[in-house]
Amino acid sequence: MAEAKQALGQYFAFFNQCRRHQGIGNQTPDALYYAEQESALAA
């Protein structure tokens, strides 16, 4: 079970931090999320 949790954690990190998504302008989900957070704080 511990191996499965570790593998899922690695996959989700890759999915959110490394893998670019065509549907959100070829950005990573993290990049899009944090850009929105920064612009909201600046407003």
Give an overview of the whole structure.
- The chain has 43 residues and is mainly alpha-helical.
- The chain has helices spanning 2-17, 29-42.
Which spans have pLDDT < 50 for at least 5 consecutive residues? none
Strand-residue fraction? Answer: under 5%
- Protein structure class: mainly alpha
> Count of helical segments?
2
What string gives the helices and strands in order?
Answer: HH
Count of strand segments: 0
Q: Sheet bearing the most strands, described?
A: none
Radius of gyration: 14 Å
> Any idea what the shape is?
elongated
Mean pLDDT: 95
Tell me the helix content. Answer: 55-70%
Q: Between the first and last Cα atoms, what is the distance in angstroms? A: 44 Å
Topology of helices and strands:
Blueprint: H1 2-17, H2 29-42
Name a few traits of the molecule:
single chain, 43 residues, mainly alpha, elongated
Structure, briefly:
It comes from Candidatus Methylophosphatis roskildensis. The protein has 43 residues and is mainly alpha-helical.
